[in-house]
Automatic annotation (TrEMBL):
Gene3D superfamilies: OmpA-like domain. The keyword Membrane applies. It comes from Crenothrix polyspora. It is found in: Cell outer membrane. Residues 1-24 form the signal peptide. This is OmpA/MotB domain-containing protein. It holds the Pfam family OmpA. Keywords: Cell outer membrane, Membrane, Signal. Residues 83-197 form the OmpA-like domain. GO terms for cellular component: cell outer membrane.
Length: 197
């Protein structure tokens, strides 16, 4: 009889081919605890507090009653997994002058910090996503958001980041951080978001 015990930080699911699955809910990197529903054909258990666990042995049986494990028990069961858990992504926002790909002066020093964080992680998985506000038509704004993303990518490459480690995308005015009416200038929407994984 094969028993697969797995650890889930936020999400739980049942694995095919295992005689059962243990699901344990733990906080994410920020300390927030979500909620997980472990469901079989016979019923479900909902985990909603840190350390809550259940075992789903067979599809035709309801998962076991929820019990809360202390941190020592979780560490004993899943210490190796926890030690190898990847770091959560880092998120940065770089801001721009109105209607252009010219960085705001206060955004320039942040690019060095971003480059250093990429180096420290030894990451080759960075997304650069350009955005605009809603002044002008969407086609023009898509072009501006692309120019902003490419500008940031070029600066990071000039510092020493390999181009094949970058995923450059742009959304124009379609993904505002601050919702506005059309033709409203919003400085927080004139940005490039950088995610380092």
């Amino acid at each position: 009889m094969k028993n697969c015990t797995i650890f889930f930080a936020i999400v739980g699911l049942l694995l095919a081919g295992c005689s059962g699955t243990t699901v344990v809910l733990v906080p994410d990197a920020t300390g927030k605890v979500g909620k997980v529903s472990v469901t079989t054909k016979a019923g479900q258990q909902v985990l909603s507090q840190s350390g809550a666990s259940t075992f789903a042995g067979k599809a035709d049986k309801i998962p076991t009653q929820v019990k809360v494990l202390d941190s020592t028990k979780i560490q004993n069961m899943f210490g190796t997994v926890l030690a190898n858990e990847p770091a959560p992504p880092l998120h940065y926002s770089i801001y721009f002058q109105f209607g252009s790909a010219e960085l705001l002066p206060e955004s320039k020093p942040l690019l060095i910090k971003i480059f250093k964080s990429i180096e420290e992680r030894k990451s080759c998985d960075t997304s650069i996503i350009g955005h605009s506000d809603r002044v002008g038509d969407n086609n023009t704004n898509k072009g501006i958001s692309l120019a902003r993303a490419e500008s940031v990518a070029n600066i990071l490459k000039s510092i020493g980041l390999a181009g094949n480690c970058l995923d450059v995308r742009y959304y124009g005015e379609n993904d505002p951080v601050v919702a506005t009416a059309d033709e409203v200038a919003e400085p927080k929407n004139r940005r490039v978001e950088i995610e380092v994984r």
